[in-house]
UniProtKB/TrEMBL annotation:
Gene3D superfamilies: Medium-chain alcohol dehydrogenases, catalytic domain, NAD(P)-binding Rossmann-like Domain. Keywords: NADP. It comes from Nocardioides luteus. Residues 10-333 form the Enoyl reductase (ER) domain. This is NADPH:quinone reductase. Pfam families: ADH_N (PF08240), ADH_zinc_N (PF00107). PANTHER family: QUINONE OXIDOREDUCTASE.
Amino acid sequence: MRAVVYSENGPSSVMQLVERPVPKPGPGEVLVRLVRAGVNPTDWKVRAGLSAKLATPEATPGQDGAGVVEEIGEGVTTHIAGQPVWLFMTQHGQPWGTAAEYVTVPAHKAVELPEDASYDLGASLGVPAMTAHRALTSGSVERIAPGSFEGVTVLVHGGAGAVGNAAIQLAVWAGAKVITTISSEEKAELARAAGAHHVVNYREGDPEAAIRDIAPDGVDQIVEVAPATNNDLDRAVIAPRGTIAIYANNGGDELTMPLRATFSLNLRYQFIQLYGIEPEQIRAAAEDVSAAVKAGALRVGAEAGVPLHHYRLEDTAAAHDAVENGAVGKVLIDLD
């Protein structure tokens, strides 16, 4: 099979396309023939050695993907050969990821992809949708389903980003009133396409006043991508006993806050890294994301606010560079 590998941490140029044997699934695993691989910021950061140094002779990047189950490992009763699936956290806990024609994964990381769902969508779930799920369920609502967010107002910062887009779509499906912040009219159109009810350009006017005008009593839940720059705004617009769920460090690596003004609101700050949450939270995310896909509530494409950018496997370095340079939408690697 063809696979992209790297033997040292570094820039995208350390990756090379090679031939490797098709792996065999071990006990509890399935072998998946990839059709699409998704590229996320975590992929280039792992490759670059920003989160951890390479500890194996070589590695294949890629957490997310979609394809078809080719072979079943011993003890697996949940899958059948020929079954379309989407993959999540593929490279977590093993050196091989989805930038290859085949990959083996623990069976629970291969989730059934509905017949009417595209491989583009399947490869776009994983990190963005499951991170968005955890961010939304860090407060008083534990599961995402139709009606579970009725009466809840959610503020999503960076609504044109992959996680922000998924958070908008999931929250709208669950019945929330969704406000999002963006930095341009182009990104505003993407956020509206995702389903946001209200869009606030934080570079124009007074975003605090604009948000308070929409939610006079404050917002109940904030999905935060840039806490270092947004914390004063968050504290000004959140309702007492609200939750601020932080999943990234855009805009700065350190967060400071006035303690009395913060704890007097009885706020909850939830810091999120997908790879460290509890197994039951991972299961809940996979189940709820799958239900949203089946309901048609999670979508990709420009019409859903997620422009798609396709690359060939041999152009994986360019795909990584596109994500690192802030490509708007979803970067995918085609393997079919």
